[in-house]
Amino acid sequence: MSEFAVDLRGRFEEVNIFEVGIAPSERLKDSLRVRFDGAGNLRSVYLFWADRGRIRQVGPETEMTVAGADKTQYRTLFVTSEPDRMSQLPVEFSFGVPFPNPCHPVMKVRYTLPYRWRENGELVREPYEVRMLVYDLRGRVVREVVRGRQEPGHHLAVWDGRSGSGVMTSSGAYLVGLKAANFTAVKRITVLK
What we know:
Elements: E1 15-22, E2 31-35, E3 46-51, E4 54-57, E5 63-67, E6 73-80, E7 94-95, E8 107-113, E9 128-136, E10 141-150, E11 153-159, E12 172-180, E13 183-191
Antiparallel strand pairs: 1-6, 2-5, 3-4, 3-6, 7-8, 8-11, 9-10, 9-12, 12-13
């Protein structure tokens, strides 16, 4: 099999994302081994290899096997100058505990939208459609806190304790719901005056 080399220099972001596509051919019937020779010699540049959500740092002995297939298979390569940055890369949904709780009247909540991959390993580049709503205990919408498209990453939403019409809500229990793709979560909060 031929050898390929790629120069990853150029305009360098906090995290650079490259996709490697492996197309089917007569020569690739069983599998293809990908090695990162020289990765151990890099200074101040760190490589991470993603295979459908499982992310591993690339070292001098790293080798990946890609099974032969009748369709192009993809793998994602993350390049960064900060090795700890990848530990912050989200690979699963999360919806944190609203704080402070009880709130008076402002409430904040952190949530995470993960990177995701298609069946063939291709990184999904489209942002998520995200909605976060505050409900009363009867299920009526009090306020839409978040609505829109958001990139994968860690996010913070803030509710000022007001209804959709701008009126300050009364003391009591409320529910905060988050929906993004197939992820749904609900948390209970208390508003005190």
